[in-house]
User: Fold these one by one.
Assistant:
Number 1:
Amino acid sequence: MFGTGLFDGAADLLPWLVYGAPLLLIWLVRGRRRRAQHRRSLAALDESRSAGLSEPPSLHPLIDPSLCLGCGTCVTACPEGDVLGMVHGKARLVNPTHCIGHGACQEACPQDAISLVLGTENRPVAIPVTGPDFQTNVPGLFVAGEIAGMGLIRNAVEQGRQAVASIRTLPGIGAGSDLDLAIVGAGPAGLAASLAAQEAGLRYVTLEQDTLGGTVSHYPRGKIVMTRPVELPLVGPVRFAETTKEELLAFWRRVQGETRIRIRDRERVEKIDRADGGFAIDTTRGHYRARAVLLAIGRRGTPRKLGVPGEERPKVVYSLVDPEQYAGRRVLVVGGGDSAIEAALAISEQPRAAVALSYRGEAFSRAKPKNRERLQAAETVRALSVLLGSQVAEIRERDVVLDTDKGRLELPNDDVIVCAGGEVPTPFLQAAGIEIQQARQRRMR
Ligand SMILES: Cc1cc2nc3c(=O)[nH]c(=O)nc-3n(C[C@H](O)[C@H](O)[C@H](O)COP(=O)(O)OP(=O)(O)OC[C@H]3O[C@@H](n4cnc5c(N)ncnc54)[C@H](O)[C@@H]3O)c2cc1C
């Protein structure tokens, strides 16, 4: 009797052992993973906060914690990888400045707990007031793309195309001796607008302070670009979904060559005034008159210049795109923020590169603590010299001249990278008479 009872008990336990033990194991492993993810996310959140990088620049997810189930599908769905995290079992924006506003998190959320919004309570985003045709309060002055509030390549392309569709119906288009349209900016919005203007037979000019590509040309080398199929005027449907920065730029350059759209590179628009039912446009190279103006200027603004002799040399650039191109070169990086420090560090890792980092302040007080530590470590082991309290006085063909506390310093030099921040586009819009509104958590989709 006794022996049979024991046998019966073991038999009862068997299903628990067969099914229960693996479930228990899975539960334990999941719990461990969740705790590790929570720790990682908290660390990322703390780092963003302590570096003052706690506000998303543009479109971003707003997560309703009362609806979030903590399933983490939004975290995995984000194409940028490190933007969202899980804190105390709920999704959180842990790396706000890396958010591009793809909206993949919103689409993936099974609970509809995510909305895409523009601006935050602490940092509203200034956007022009426009009608559905993208016309601002200044008749004949239009905006499209990121400056109008909607980020992403596809939206910019779509808006550039639609804005030109509205512009071509304006009275006075096609008449008189002025251009019909001046397009400012040749990012995705300006490119699509230029193609649409060419297709519509408008007399237009596209003015770009840099070169074709806009923000895309400043992405890091090899960045994966997530986009969606779009219709490009004169080209037809373009079915890119996932590509690289280089492929996308090469495609746009091919389109520019084949369609012969007219883009005037390295010509910055400085002033737009109303004149005789149209506009007078002053640029760094000339003067134009046009019946309508489309601003497709994005939000990156214009890089702040040093204003020193020799700054116009081609060896001077305003952002680091590809550190590898500086192998074996003597580089001066100018600036005291994170982008300057990160550029100097990345170049110092290249073989035979020699980097000097010049900053007029006495300490890198604006930079992330982690970057300051990395800089100190790199100074001792690599070819990186830090010149605090120094200011660039002149940029010459083969060297640079710096003013320092100890007098003038001449450094042999091949390249200069200026990371001195940028001038935001809002004053430019206001000077043109455009009414601006402040978006605070405004729902966009
Ligand atoms: C790091 C990063 C990664 C991203 N990844 C993606 C992605 O994977 N997928 C995606 O869809 N989106 C992505 N985006 C967003 C996307 O790049 C932008 O939404 C898009 O480029 C906006 O296009 P735009 O034409 O409105 O402006 P921009 O691309 O910013 O172009 C504006 C142009 O106007 C020019 N300009 C400005 N002022 C003047 C002036 N006064 N005179 C003459 N020219 C002027 C500028 O030089 C620039 O070329 C990313 C953004 C960043 C920062």
Number 2:
Amino acid sequence: MLISVESPNTVRLALLPPLALYVHIPWCVRKCPYCDFNSHEQKGPLEEKRYLEALMRDLEQLLPQVWGRRLSSVFIGGGTPSLFSPESIDALLSGIRARLTLEPGAEVTLEANPGTVEAARFRGFREAGVNRISVGVQSFDDRMLAALGRIHSAAEARAAVDAALQAVGNVNLDLMYGLPGQDISMVVSDLKEALRCGAPHVSAYQLTIEPNTVFFSKPPPLPEHDLCADMQAVVESMLLENGFEHYETSAFARPGRRCRHNLNYWEFGDYLGIGAGAHGKISFPDRVTRHEQTKLPRDHLEGRNFLEKAVPPAELPFEFMLNALRLVEGFPATLFQERTGLPLTVIQNELNESEKKGLLERDWQRIRPSPRGRLFLNELLERFLPGERKDPG
Ligand code: SF4
């Protein structure tokens, strides 16, 4: 390794990581009662053109920090990006290409919600350059969709996944479990339906009640903790038995279909964030910085300034672990130094202790969470918090 480390607090990166781009589109038809994302109910006509101008302004502000670097992936998320017309997505991707070079074969994902798309729209997105679509299905059961306050039916979800598969083939399907009134047989039915659809990627999340949501003030009756753990076990076993690889806490993919954009986050790569509330991370040879765009769409449209700060070196180990320990197969031991610019010795004690507690496994090449560590991921991560760490003795 070509890195010389002067002290545990001196960041020296010999190589810059891959660079991705996240684009946030903050509007939805209706706000779901469990959602704590930066998404806002669309009122009146969408200001697509004005928002595109704001996105390009965000990108141009960041460009001087990444001159000469190429984009390995683009992710258009939200909110509900499929509310934007194919013409707007085409203008967005053209604007990005005019300012930054995309690597050949770069992954370009767009999030879509059933009820906002039809086949022609998906074809338009593909013609604009989208080559991966992530569909927010959540469930194929109309009762569960109603309990979640979704705007679409199970039939619309099936139609959306089929249309996305026809348009681009590389499709993710978001599912949720632990839903109000849900039992194991309903989770099995959802998974059977997901497998029948043929999407090569599934993201399965347990419903959690987050502050500042309707469900937080009026909590629905949720399945017990043990039942949710059984649901998670069913999700994992059914997808593994059917040829999926479990590669991240919530992500499952057929071979060759892992999400490259999200992998870059989990491997502590760099990414630019543009659009309301989007955040990003940029590495330099001697520091790592984070930026965050103005959160409210109205303020963002008006061009309010964005925040930027260097990450204190003491916080980098936790930030790295927060991402990399989500990966079921963990990470190569050399990646820590490559991405944080700090020697692995700065977390030697925490690695040793976590291993002793059975939360972590290591060999000469890789560091990975043990099955117990994956189950108690928060406990494992807390060990790497700046205040908790001890200097290696
Ligand atoms: S569609 Fe997605 S982003 Fe929009 S409110 Fe519902 S959960 Fe949130």
